[in-house]
Amino acid sequence: MLFDLYGKELSLTLEGRLSVQDGYLRLSPTRLMLGSLPIPQVTVDRAVSSLFESPENRERFRLPPDIRSLRVENGELVVTWR
User: Fold this and answer.
1) What gap in Å lies between CA 13 and CA 4, rounded to an integer?
2) HSE (side-chain half, CA atoms, 13 Å) at 53
3) How many domains are contained in the chain?
4) Which residues are within 8 A (CB) of 56 and not within 5 positions of it... i.e. 6 or more apart?
5) In what order do the strands lie in the sheet with 2-5?
6) Domain that holds residue 65
7) pTM for this model (two decimals)
8) DSSP state, residue 54
9) What is the pLDDT of residues 18-50, one digit of tens each?
10) Quick check: 3 pLDDT over 90?
């Protein structure tokens, strides 16, 4: 993601593994970079956990009941249906 911060473009890069847990999309973060600055893993874990666990956001990550799993293979999203 690119955004403008005080007139400068700054990138935010989040890497992780997608999964489905109890019908909800989950992300297990492996790395977060703000520009070229790595963010400590404990901070990343806390931020992503609060994003996915907050009551306001929880329903946004609910998947249709027909989706069993998601994964990325060779740069492509693979969806497994029931």
Assistant:
1) 14
2) 7
3) 1
4) none
5) 2-5, 8-21, 24-34, 37-38
6) 2-81
7) 0.71
8) -
9) 889 989 999 999 999 998 999 999 999 998 888
10) no
